[in-house]
Amino acid sequence: SKQIDVKDLNIYYGDFLAVQDVSTTIAPRSITALIGPSGCGKSTFLRALNRMHEVIPGAKVKGSVELDGQDMYGRGVDPVLVRRKVGMVFQKPNPFPTMSIKENVLAGVKLNNKRIKKSEAEELVESSLKGANLWNEVKDRLDKPGSGLSGGQQQRLCIARTIAVKPEVVLMDEPCSALDPISTLAVEDLMAELKNDYTIVIVTHNMQQAARVSDKTGFFNIEGTGKPGKLVEYDETS
Ligand code: ADP
Ligand code: ADP
User: I need a labelling partner for 181 at 20 to 30 A (CA). Which of 38, 119, 153, 211 fits?
Assistant: First the structure.
């Protein structure tokens, strides 16, 4: 778990400024929720934290994002390494449908380290599924396809796949928007546990969820300031 320091972040799509002059610090072992109307720049901000904009045509990021003082945009820093340190979970659970549960957990790890030993892989599958509160539900069906799980289980499988890579930071872009209320609460409980090991940043449309899970909420504002993508912070604990 590492501290994130964002300095003078401006993000453009062509000439359009989607996130403007954001500087903020996100503490290790904390959950920060980003909230605000659709189109205000939440996802755009989140993607800057793991250099996802590099795969979006026309996107341009200015400023810096540091993890414990190391600039993720620094000269010579490999974006692949950044994405290993800063994992991402998406709105729609996206396990690889033709892969088994076990293969899904290992998918991200194998991208980085093809020569993982069988015993090591099995331990990692177990510890990651335990870490995602999914082990008890799937331990007898690890070779069955991930697509056979419920939506909430699939999302926890995606979280297991993300933490199997042993990141420092976990980003979640509306991780519960596609889930029913019970599955949502299960993922919220999981977030509270993951906070012990990771720095967590979530995007949510749900004010109650932000209040329930987060230590700090960042409101992206368009109208209030008359500017696009301005961040206003609110500390839940004060
Ligand atoms: P939010 O996540 O808050 O809904 P986004 O970060 O997705 O907002 O979008 C912020 C603004 O940037 C919106 O006006 C959106 O239309 C625009 N935008 C997002 N992605 C792109 C893109 N790939 N190309 C051009 N404009 C984009
Ligand atoms: P979200 O609110 O979750 O960001 P959107 O529906 O706004 O989702 O965007 C979905 C996808 O479309 C994103 O990958 C975003 O980058 C892209 N997108 C959004 N707005 C634009 C735009 N004006 N031009 C091109 N791509 C866009």
Answer: 38
Q: How many CA atoms lie within 13 A of 36 on its CB side?
A: 27
Q: Is this structure's pTM higher than 0.80?
A: yes
CA nearest to 33, candidates 154, 164, 176, 133: 176
Cα–Cα distance for residue pair 130/211, rounded to 1 Å: 26
Measured from the Cα of 173, ligand 1's closest atom is 2
β-bridge pairing 59-67 and 4-13? antiparallel
Tell me, in angstroms, the distance from the centre of ligand 1 to residue 41's CA.
6
Separation CA 156–CA 183 (nearest Å): 9
**Tens digits of per-residue pLDDT, 123-158?**
999 999 999 999 999 999 999 999 999 999 999 999
The sign one gets for the Cα dihedral 187, 193, 195, 197 is: negative
Nearest CA residue ID for atom 13, ligand 1:
39
Distance in angstroms (rounded) separating the CA atoms of residues 95 and 101 = 8
Of 116, 115, 140, residue with least CA distance to 126: 140
Q: Helix, strand, or coil here: 124?
A: helix
pLDDT beyond 80 at 213: yes
